[in-house]
Amino acid sequence: MSIRIGDWPIYSFLLALMQIISVSSYQIVLLTGETTQTPEKLYMVAATYIVTSMLWWAMERNFKSVYALSCPWFFFGLAFLLLGVSPFIPDWRVASRIEDAATCFYSAGASAGALSFALNFGDEGMPQFSLVTYPLNTV
Questions:
Q1: What is the distance between the alpha carbons of residues 57 and 9, in angstroms, rounded to a whole number?
Q2: Taking Cα atoms as reference points, which of 16, 108, 106, 116 lies closest to residue 55?
Q3: Model pTM?
Q4: 98 near 7, Cβ under 8 Å?
Q5: Which among 79, 94, 96, 97 is positioned nearest to 21, based on CA atoms?
């Protein structure tokens, strides 16, 4: 990860790519061929996004950042794998459920986008306060 291409380390490219594909979990819904989203799917995606956002935050606070930044790629890969397999399923109801699962997996990966943005700048999203106060110099 510390190998450089020019002046840029490889991990910075991975962080930037994660930020790009994490822009919206609705992108995968468009890839499934749908132009609208049912309320059930909206709630399913939103609930997945909220729960996994909290999990990514907890993981980043309690473990090394590399784990919180690497695990979303598993969910992106699984989402695209399921999306690629679904057209070959003969029963449309099963294929639709597989596409729904792919949407949820993509949403789980996309919820780490804000974390990758924060860690791209070396900040964990928490301001550092000092308890030491300095008196003002009045001249």
A1: 24
A2: 108
A3: 0.75
A4: no
A5: 79
3-class DSSP assignment, residue 88: helix
Tens of pLDDT, residue by residue over 60-114, are 888 887 888 889 999 999 999 999 999 999 998 999 899 889 989 998 998 888 8
Looking at residue 112, what DSSP letter applies? T
**C-alpha to C-alpha distance for 129 and 133, rounded to whole angstroms:** 10
CA–CA separation, 81 vs 75, rounded Å? 10
- How many residues are listed for the chain in this entry? 139
d(CA 99, CA 136): 61
Q: Which of 126, 12, 1 is nearest to 60 (CA)?
A: 126
Angle in degrees, 0-180, between the axes of helices 39-62 and 65-85, rounded to the nearest 10: 150
Task: Name the E strands within the chain.
Answer: 4-5, 8-9
Structure tokens, 68:
């919180």
60, 115 Cβ separation under 8 angstroms: yes
